[in-house]
């Protein structure tokens, strides 16, 4: 399973590299819009949407960390053998 996941993450990161700045710009615009809504009316659902968008913005870094974590044990096995 980890080899499939490594392949998937590697491909996802490569394919989204060029479009990601555009996605981030849209996320930032939506967060700004929701922040204004939140200032006008404190709402837990709006807070949750903002958090979800911020989590989405961090997706490449999250996936890269996961990828590095999966590759580290594989490198150790190669060195031990």
The poorly predicted ranges are none
Number of contiguous helices: 4
Rg to the nearest angstrom? Answer: 18 Å
Order of helices and strands: HHHH
Mean pLDDT: 92
Q: How would you portray this structure in words?
A:
- This protein has 81 residues and is mainly α.
- The mean pLDDT is 92.
- It has four helices and no strands.
- It has helices at residues 2-16, 20-40, 44-57, 59-80.
Please write out the topology.
Layout: H1 2-16, H2 20-40, H3 44-57, H4 59-80
Sum up the structure in keywords:
single chain, 81 residues, mainly alpha, 4 helices, 0% strand, elongated
Question: Could you write a compact summary of the structure shown?
Answer:
This protein is an all-alpha fold and 81 residues long.
């Amino acid at each position: 399973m980890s080899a499939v996941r490594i392949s998937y993450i590697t491909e996802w990161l490569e394919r989204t590299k060029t479009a990601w700045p555009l996605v981030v710009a849209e996320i930032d615009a939506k967060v700004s819009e929701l922040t204004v809504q939140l200032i006008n009316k404190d709402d837990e659902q709006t807070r949750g949407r903002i958090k979800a968008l911020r989590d989405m913005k961090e997706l490449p870094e999250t996936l890269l960390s996961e990828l590095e974590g999966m590759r580290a044990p594989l490198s150790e096995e190669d060195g031990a053998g």
